[in-house]
Design a protein that fits this description.
By secondary structure, the chain is an alpha+beta fold. The protein folds into two domains: 82 residues, Arc Repressor Mutant, subunit A (Orthogonal Bundle), CATH 1.10.10; 169 residues, GAF domain (Beta-Lactamase, 2-Layer Sandwich). It has nine helices and eight strands. The strands form two sheets. The chain has a six-stranded antiparallel beta sheet with strand order 5-4-3-8-7-6, with helices on both faces. The protein has a two-stranded antiparallel ribbon with strand order 1-2.
Amino acid sequence: MTLDGVMGIHVSNIRNPIPSYGISMETIGRTLRLLRSLSEHSSGVGIKELSEHLGIPPSTVHRLLQVLMEHHFVSKEDDTRRYHLGPEVLELARVYLQSRDVVAVARPYLARLRVQTGETAFLTALVGSSAICVAIEESARPLRLFIEVGQRMPYHAAASARAILAFQPQEEIERLLAKEPLQPYTDLTPTTLADVRGKLATVRADGYAICESELDEMVTALATPVRDAAGRVQASVTVVVPTIRLPAADQRALVGLVREAGARMSATLGYRGDRTRHPAGAAPA
């Protein structure tokens, strides 16, 4: 994927563009591979690891990192000497996501869900190999979970990501799970592949995902897939609520509201697999 054209971003429009130094195509390729490698190490990575992973001399990796840091595409932890993607990457992602139809389609449905439930509703989309929050309507209640646009949702622990992953081809499921450490966020987080596969099977059978205290203690998230015109699941809609505010009866009602929102978003995007009373292309009242 190139920055110019495919993503609709012209290099000349990026803040502080890197001046031309007669850079070779090999250097550009190495830089892009370096950025990709950083995206696969959410906890940061050192120069030695990057060098070994990419097959590039450490001195070259260091030089590329310095240029990327200068332009805020990479940041560094001084105490650990580990490198992460920088804020400018998120800026590019924001521009890219603004052009995605699913975000524009989802906004009125998210707003309606927030009004219906009084809770935070958000949209997660498959961006590359990651499930990323791309739009959000926050609850006005003082006790709520804070989520940010651009936040990565873990496949094994987040309902929003699970609702996307469960409906991918099996080969893709295994590929994406292999990229992610099964980090225990709480005592209830599934931390084995067998457990995660079991959770995904339940999502496929039910048509929606529920995570209770798996990513955050005393937080329940309910998510359902959003399908495009071809029936592919590239996004999900989620409502997240403090568990103390969600008795069993209310959970059943909330599942219905979230599934309805997902079905209506899918219909608006052109999906015809499920019947819906909500006409495609029309926003909710």
